[in-house]
Amino acid sequence: MKKLLVISGKGGTGKTTVAAAMIRFAQAAAFADCDVDAPNLHLVVPMAAEPEQIPFFGSSKAHIDADTCDGCGRCASACRFDAIIAVEGRYGVNVYACEGCGVCAYVCPRKAVTLRPDVAGVRALYAGPPVFSTATLRMGRGNSGKLVTAVKGAMEKAAPEAELAVIDGSPGIGCPVIASVSGVDLALVVTEPTASGFSDLKRLLRTAEVLGVRVAVCVNRFDMHPQTGLLIERYCNEQGVPLAGRVPSDPHVPEAINAGFSIAEVDCPARAALLRVFDNVMGLLKEGTA
Predict the structure, then answer these.
(1) Is pLDDT above 50 for 158?
(2) Which of 18, 24, 95, 205 lies in disulfide reach of 264, CB 3.0 to 4.6 Å?
């Protein structure tokens, strides 16, 4: 299975729009949404059947048994995260502040405090075909990198015969991005011709270099500021990073998204440009095979 990852240095660059188009053009038999903090690929790549939903357990959280707790307050005094709160003479836990360190359980003389597995999110797997793996991380939870790894693993397990898998990654360079990048054959970085887009692109390219992953760059809404777009292309040429293409601003894009389908289904300038990007990306993937 060849794995194409679509990522961006910052949010709002059109990463998911590009990923959905790549899925459509390739008629991919397997794809995944690894932007677990804010998954939205399902909005433009609808599936016919209901998914299998699997709870994802992250770090443990403290739990206080109200019947056993005598209200001595030792747990609250020992908690450096201020996660223990008083509730009607007894103590409870603010799960958003709890780091699961276990100090409260250690100091409790009544053994009223225990650490319990915490449901940090939910994975969803559409068995297909095509196979679609995604997940949602609960608010205030960590372990996003582990959840991303689980999403990718579920996709690969459910579609072992797929020739190509397309993965919609997270913006930035944090844990979910690093987990998304791991093991892919090519990362298509979507950027925009702005100062922040250019700066974040540089950070993401350095991250990919450290991880030893091949990358290509697509400049979305190139005509928004062509001068910065040209600076981005010049920088990529200097760094030896392949340019997959430019995509123009196109009012058909938000119209398609608002209607709930991929821009690849609309005859418009953005679609034509993305098809050229797709052809270039497929060429780069074949080069990696040779």
Answers:
(1) yes
(2) 24
- CATH topology (fold) of 2-49+127-289: Rossmann fold (3.40.50)
> Is it true that the peptide bond before 251 is cis, omega within 30 degrees of 0?
no
Looking at the DSSP bridge assignments, the partners of residue 93 are: 84
What is residue 128's predicted lDDT score, i.e. its pLDDT? 76
Looking up tokens 């990718």, which residue turns up? 152
Task: State which H helix or E strand residue 142 sits in.
Answer: none
- Please state the domain extents for the chain: 2-49+127-289, 57-119
Instruction: Report the alpha-carbon distance of residue 164 to residue 27 in Å, rounded.
Output: 9
Q: What is the pLDDT of residues 116-144, one digit of tens each?
A: 999 999 999 998 789 999 999 998 887 78
Q: How many other C-beta atoms lie within 10 A of the C-beta of residue 42? A: 15
Q: Strand 84-87 vs strand 90-93: parallel, antiparallel, or unpaired?
A: antiparallel
Mean pLDDT computed over 195-214: 94
pLDDT for 290 beyond 60: no
56-75 tens-digit pLDDT: 998 899 999 988 999 999 99
Alpha helices, DSSP H, located in 133-221: 144-158, 175-181, 195-211
Domain 57-119, second-level architecture: 2-Layer Sandwich (3.30)
Please name the residue ranges forming H helices in 59-174.
74-78, 103-107, 144-158
CA dist 185 and 282 (Å) reads: 11
Those residues whose C-beta lies under 8 Å from the C-beta of residue 36, and which sit 6 or more positions away, are: 121, 134, 135, 136, 137, 144, 147, 148, 151, 170, 176
Alpha-carbon distance values, 211 to 277, 282, 290 (Å): 24, 22, 21
